[in-house]
Amino acid sequence: MQTEALTGGFANPPIDSAAGFRAALNAMARPGKIETVSGGTAPAPVSAAAAVLLLTLCDAETPLYLAPGVDSPAMRDWGAFHIGAPLVKAEEAQFALGDWAALSPLERFRIGNAEYPDRSATLIVEMPDLSNNGAILSGPGIETTAQLSLPEVEIFRANRALFPLGLDFYFCAGERLAALPRSTKVEAA
Amino acid sequence: MYVAVKGGERAIDNAHEWLAEERRGDPAVPELSVTQIREQMKLAVNRVMAEGSLYDPDLAALAIKQSRGDLIEAIFLIRAYRTTLPRIGHSEPVDTGAMICDRRVSATFKDAPGGQVLGPTFDYTHRLLDFKLAAEGETPRAQEVDAERKETPRITEFLNRDGLIQEETPSDETPPDMTRAPMEYPANRALRLQALTRGDEGFVLGMAYSTQRGYGRNHPFVGELRIGKVPVEMEIAELGFSVEIGEIDLTECETVNQFAGSKTEPPQFTRGYGLVFGQTERKAISMALVDRSLRWEELGEDNVGAPAQDEEFVLSHSDNIQATGFLEHIKLPHYVDFQSELELVRRMRAEAQASYKEAAE
Amino acid sequence: MAKAEQEKTERQAWMGLLAKSSPARLAALMDKASDVPDFTWLRVPEAGGVMVRGRMGGTGAPFNLGEMTVTRCALRLESGEVGHAYVQGRDKAHAQRAALVDAMMQTDRASDLRASVLDPLEAEREAQIATRAAKAAATKVDFFTMVRGED
């Protein structure tokens, strides 16, 4: 394993992962709200925000799917050292990382079952940019409405219709991230 | 009817302070250290590690000190601590065949290769109180004789060679983990063994004893009981190979059970298996008996309705932390529930009295 | 290839020895050994649990036996060598020392370190095992057949 794969982890794991978790939680609790994180670096092209999410949320017991584009020997080594998550097919993943095109089709991912809706996948979507423009969000955690530059709309409406089953999403660009839980209603602007 | 109450904080604080004082006992008596407990109360430490499901003698000793010797409370502390540890990974299955044995006995083969080694056992003591121990200051020394290090092959392997015992099929399947996914029934043998090895010693012993007394009898002999150290090896992803990450004491018990054969199996011996952290042989033997009893279905035996054949009954009552949690919670305030019971009984009494009166008139 | 394989086996041996060593002994031996080089952390010491597995009947399918505490860390010396440690227990300083030895064993200080740290650890461990084996051997049963039935 190259030494490069051994760098980029949290310098102070208890503090950094607590900060990462707070950001991830805030983002999920306030859909559309953009959080800024730092402290983790994964091999290119993975964003800093996605690296922080992986370091914070994933471990040896969270099967991870790396979509084409982020699945590289360097990334596999980095993941093996810093996260230890077993790499699996999309169908078995609890977490998945990739850009929107590479993660599609989303039907592959687990949406949970009636007894355990939590046995579903969380998708970490790499975005070229993230802003509070675009699709209109409403629902739990949003006082009136919020806006987020989602890659499309219809697919999230369909996901919302599966509730309490369904997928949850993080969107990352650079050091910024936002989230869209399955409970959020999405409409075109 | 709803009775909301609040308060008791000061009473609780003071209770904790008194608990701390009582824990220390008479200050004129020297305080017990954690290392003393670890070294001199070793079997208690082993039990806490086995049922706490965490191998760490120092932590187990600390838990025993904190719990004033209440082992179930100590196990509770270890289970709670365990949940705070990040799970680094899992080990390769330990090779108990390579165990460096302190003790190794067989009830079935007198002349087992490697010999019968008694080890530090209570077995042949007279169970007479030894008042010499009440006087302090002795450091006993064990006899030593030159020993060439020899392999101690597993005794069931001899039976296996002749096809006289049911074979264990090796596999590298990932076993289910009851600490990560809720129990679902029917469980498989891997889950049963995990539940039994961390189960309450008294409960597993009682269940095992019930099979000996005739409730689902399965005629066990201890084919082999061995206690000793095995290395623990783990595959390290960043290195690309596995290394030993430590060494643990284990007790392993294999029972050999009579088996007349069934519709699906030829007559042969069958096995029960016990493997437990530390020197814990009562538990390991009990585990092997209960394991064998719960295997009735896969071996094509009849379910005679014995408690030890009922997987759901055994597994869902073997955990002393679940049991004590549910049992002891009934002493905590239930004012709301009880108030409604009180109302109900008063009303029923009033109705009953009214009807007596009517009948009398 | 054979050389790489041999290096791997040697490294497995010293990492395993360090993992099983007593924190106090390793500390004492390293204090005596030599100055400790500067390093940067790749993974700061972290205590966690490893699920130990056994096999049904000793040889069959695996099952989960229970966890053990393990502390791990990784560091890089200024000269570039990377040291890893996975040691039993929760002692972070012990993990750091084990990783330092692992890294330094890849430098020209290896033979030095082997003589001053690894060899004594190994010898003490062997002696402990031998003593226990000698005590166990003293409790080995010699049978005398008194009477055999089925005349």
SSE class of chain A: alpha/beta
Strand content of chain C: 25-35%
Rg for CA atoms of chain C:
21 Å
Q: Helicity range of the residues of chain A?
A: 25-40%
Class from helix and strand fractions of chain C: alpha+beta
The greatest interface here is: B-C, 82 and 54 residues
Compute the number of strand runs of chain C.
3
H-E order of chain A? HEHEHEHEEEHEEE
Oligomer, anyone? heterotrimer
The gyration radius over C-alpha positions of chain A equals 16 Å
**CATH classification class of chain A:** Alpha Beta
Strand order of the largest sheet of chain C: 1-2-3
The second-level CATH architecture of chain A is 3-Layer(aba) Sandwich
Q: What are the segments of chain C in which pLDDT stays under 50 over at least 5 consecutive residues?
A: none
State the shape of chain A: globular
Question: What's the structural domain tally of chain C?
Answer: 1
Distance between the first and last residues' Cα of chain A: 47 Å
Any overview of this molecule?
The complex is a heterotrimer of chains A (189), B (361) and C (151). With 189 residues, chain A is α/β, with parallel strands linked by helices. Chain A has a single domain, classed as 3-Layer(aba) Sandwich (Rossmann fold), CATH 3.40.50.11310. Chain A is 26% helix and 19% strand. In chain A, the strands form two sheets. A six-stranded mixed beta sheet of chain A has the order 1-8-7-4-3-2. With 361 residues, chain B is α+β, with helices and mostly antiparallel strands. With 151 residues, chain C is of the alpha+beta class. A three-stranded antiparallel beta sheet of chain C has the order 1-2-3. In chain C, α2 packs across α3. The model of chain C has no long low-confidence stretch (mean pLDDT 93). Classes of the chains: A alpha/beta (189), B alpha+beta (361), C alpha+beta (151). Chains in contact: A-B, A-C, B-C. At the B-C interface, β1, β2, β3, α7 and β4 of B face α1, β1, β2, β3 and α4 of C. β2 of chain B pairs parallel with β1 of chain C, so a sheet runs across the interface.
